[in-house]
Write a structure and sequence with these properties.
Helix Hairpins, about 120 residues
C-alpha cells in the first residue's frame, strides 16, 4: 500500500479501527494497560498544552495551524484509548454504546450537570 492509499483508508466501524490499532501496538505484553495509560496521559497533556498556547500565543483565536495540531493530538488520544480498551478485551463499540446510554439517561433525567459517577 502506498502512502497515498494509506492516507485515504476509511474505517466503517469503531471495531475496524480497533483492529487497526491492535495491529500497530508495539509495546510488550508485560506492559499492557500501563504503557497505553501513560501514553494517554501524555497525549491528553499535549492537547492541554495546545489549548494553553492558543490562549498564550494566539490571543484565544483558533488558527488553522493550532486547530490542525489539536486534531492531530486528539487522534493520538483516540489511539491510546482504543489500545486500553483492547488490552482490557472490550470492544470500542461497546464502550461507545454504554457511554451513550449513560449520557442519554442523564439527559432524560435532567442530570447532565452535577458531579458524581452515579447521577
Amino acid at each position: 500500500m502506498t502512502e497515498e492509499q494509506g492516507s485515504q483508508e476509511q474505517f466503517q466501524t469503531l471495531d475496524e479501527y480497533q483492529m487497526f490499532v491492535r495491529s500497530t501496538k508495539v509495546y510488550d505484553k508485560e506492559y499492557h494497560l500501563v504503557y497505553p495509560v501513560l501514553g494517554l496521559v501524555n497525549e491528553a497533556g499535549e492537547v492541554a498544552g495546545k489549548i494553553k498556547k492558543l490562549m498564550r500565543d494566539d490571543e484565544g483565536q483558533l488558527t488553522q495551524e493550532r486547530f490542525d495540531d489539536i486534531v492531530a493530538e486528539l487522534g493520538d488520544v483516540l489511539w491510546y484509548v482504543t489500545a486500553i480498551a483492547d488490552d482490557l478485551g472490550i470492544s470500542l463499540s461497546s464502550i461507545f454504546h454504554d457511554n451513550f446510554m449513560k449520557i442519554k439517561s442523564r439527559q432524560q433525567r435532567n442530570m447532565i450537570k452535577g458531579s458524581g459517577d452515579n447521577r
